[in-house]
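Bench log. Compound arrived from synthesis this morning; before running ITC I wanted a structural hypothesis for how threonylcarbamoyladenylate sits in the protein. Inputs:
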Amino acid sequence: MAETGVNIEKAKATLETGGLVAIPTETVYGLAANGFNATAVSNIFKAKNRPSFDPLILHSNSIEKIKSFTKDIPEAALALAEAFWPGSLTLVLPKQDMVPPIVTSGLDTVGVRIPKHPLTLQLLESIPFPLAAPSANPFGYVSPTTAVHVNNNLGTKVDYILDGGACEVGVESTIVGFPNGVPTIFRKGGLAIEEIEKIIGKVEVQATSSSKPSAPGMLEKHYSPGIKLEIGNIPELMKAHQGKNFAVLSFKDIYDEVPAPFMKVLSKSGDLTEAARNLFAFLRYFSEVKPEIIFTELLPENGLGTAINDRLKRAAAQ
Ligand code: TXA
Ligand code: MG
């Protein structure tokens, strides 16, 4: 178990000496190191068992600081930064030389974000370097939304966990890049595409790919709870699999025939924001309850429903 608390000084000192600190953000917890220290960053990859072709996001507390290590920022990116930072948006921008290649997996662009969590913003204000931080989970597993999740997964590998409570948004940031100048969604996430389009107009959405190294977070299989997940019409799935030891993860309906420990409802009122906040914790819960299979369903494909459906489909991918 790693030491857990709200000691910003301790977090700062750990990062300054090349250590790893888990940080709360509004999306999910991050596993952070000094983003300008290549050795410290390499320890992130080791702790997560993450392949080196999957680039990291640099977190900072101000656009000024971000401008000091990126360049040629498109107008549309500045408009999005103005509108949504601090918040659940990552921008992929051309990088300057001081960003070590290990952070970007050798790409000449870097993902950057100002997260919206008071503890982490306070920490970022107190240090001159950005924090490289992927989600604080073993590669391919479900992202953590509490300090306990981080401790359960990486407790022996992280030097300190800054405990900021449960994450408010619950799914990772929306990633926007500008290949050939065209605003493009690289990953659906906690900022709805509709909100982005209100600011910069229609955007492209990059398709999922398991082979494209330029967008590794788009790997088809990801967010795996270690239990088979089947997406469909829940009553039909239950009928077809009578007698099986299944669990149900529904959007808003309770199925009384399912024993309570095997039944989770993402949002009884059908609220997509609440559903996103619950999603990863419920997948983790089922990974402990260990049903044979989880039956689930797609949510309305708007707002945060788009990101939730994306995570469900990847969790279900074989
Ligand atoms: O909400 C989040 O974004 C969380 C919190 C901790 O900020 N972080 C997170 O990091 O989800 P991670 O490492 O799990 O996902 C980062 C993804 C990579 O998998 C990759 O797809 C994309 O960001 N990415 C980073 N840099 C990129 C680049 N230069 N070009 C394309 N994609 C990039
Ligand atoms: Mg991740």
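What the model suggests: The radius of gyration is 19 Å. The domain at 228-316 is CATH 3.40.50.11030 (Rossmann fold).
ITC booked for Thursday regardless.
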